[in-house]
Structure formats: structure tokens, C-alpha cells
Amino acid sequence: MSQPKTSSKSKSSKSDASKVHKLALKGSSKVVNEFFEYCINTILFQRGVYPAEDFTAVKKYGLTMMVTADDQVKAYIKKIMGQLKEWMYGSKISKLVVVITSKETGEHVERWQFDVQIFGKNAKTKSSKQAADQENSAPDATEAPEEKTETEIQAEIQSIFRQITASVTFLPMLDGNCTFNVLVYADADSEVPLEWGDSDAKEIKNGEKVQLRSFSTSNHRVDTLVSYRLAD
Fold first, then answer.
1. Helices (H), strands (E): how many in the chain?
2. Which member of 63, 120, 170, 185 lies 3.0 to 4.6 Å from 2 by CB, making a disulfide possible if both were Cys?
């Protein structure tokens, strides 16, 4: 199982054919990378990790999205996305996880997991042990789906963001001040910057899990799962 890397933040991480294929993968990686950036912002806004006045509205995916306007948080997310971009282009990523933690108790109260599958030539073969370790991951699928238009991909992404927004109807209210961590499951041979360290999985103890929608491109599939602690 790839080791999760984390960086935490509180307010006060040959042939012409192959060239064409790499370009397609790069374009798909950019779509996934942007999706993750907006997911982090949306989760922080919808779950009230930071005050609503710290966010500004932008148009993306045909929706009004809220992104942080706080300089510290923006810089932190930018740093994460810069490293994630390198790992995505190198097909080194299997999961991205956003964990919300109570500042008072240090308990992990919510965990948003995004499983990444890579199709076709770029899919890495996994050992049976690695496959068994990824108990929360969707089943492997190395065969690429049918080609989709940008409009079709955007519609799938829209559905996920609508689900994240609607999740406030079933997720328990977050009490007190919270902070967040971003975990990235990168291949063992990935180059890791000094500021990124190994981390445990930060699972929710005795948590409930809800599988949300997925989206796919010709090169990637992303599945979404939220785990949360039941209210006392």
C-alpha cells in the first residue's frame, strides 16, 4: 500500500503515438488536479472549517464555487496542488484524502477520500497484498471507458459537487474549532519534498461511511467517499 504523505494547516501539503498518449494523460491529470483543488475549498466552506466571509465566489463547472480568500490558506493549498500536479503527471497517486480534526480534542471527525484509478497503459499492476490493503478503494478497473466529451465529464463533476453541498443534510454539525490535513497516497518511489512527512491513515474511529458519485476521463476515474463520526 502506498504510504500517505501529509502536510497540515491550521489558521494561526519515443513514438509519436506515445507522445499523444502522454499529452492525453497530462490533460486528464490537469482535470483531476483542478477537481481536487475545488474539492478542498468546497469542503472547507461547506463544513465551516473557516468562516464564510473568508471565501469568495467563482464560476467553475457551470456552478458557483466558493474558494478561500485567506492568504495563508491559499498559500497552503497552492503548495499542495503544486506537488500534487507533479505526482499526478507521473501517475504516482492512488488517493487524496481531506481529514477534518477537532482542535480541542485532536479527534478526527470527518474524512473525505478520493480514490484515483488510472486506465490502460498507465495503470500500474498491484500485488494482491496492495489490493487487499486498499479496503476502501473502488474495484480496480484498468480498461479505459468510452471516450467522453468535456461536457459529459463536467456533468459528472457537477453531480459530485452538488452531493458535497447536499451532504450538510446528513453530516453531523462540527463542534468547536477544527483544522484540516491533506493526505496523498503516493507510490513508494515518489520523490517527496522535505516538508511532506509520512502519516497514518487518520481513519474515523467507528465512523459511518457514505459512497458518493464518481467521475471519469479517458485516463482516470475518481471515486468519492466520506466518513464521519456519529454525533455523541
1. 4, 9
2. 185
Distances (CA, A) of 68 to 20, 45, 46, 99: 36, 8, 12, 17
- Beta-carbon contacts of 78 under 8 Å, excluding residues fewer than 6 positions away, are none
Domains and CATH numbers, the chain: 4-228 (3.30.900.10)
- pLDDT tens for each residue of 170-213: 899 888 889 998 988 888 777 776 566 667 678 888 889 999 99
CB atoms within 10 A of CB 192: 15
Task: Tell me the whole-structure pTM to 2 decimals.
Answer: 0.79
Strands 108-118 and 220-228, bridge-based pairing: antiparallel
Spatial distance between the Cα atoms of 145 and 216, rounded to a whole number of angstroms? 8
DSSP letters, 122-174, are GPPP--HHHHHH-TTSPPP--S------HHHHHHHHHHHHHHHHHGGGTSPPP
CA-derived radius of gyration, the chain: 17
45: left (phi over 0), alpha (psi -120 to 50) or beta: alpha
Cα gap 53→45, rounded to integer Å: 10
Tell me how far CA of residue 69 lies from CA of 21, 44, 52, 75, in angstroms: 37, 12, 10, 10
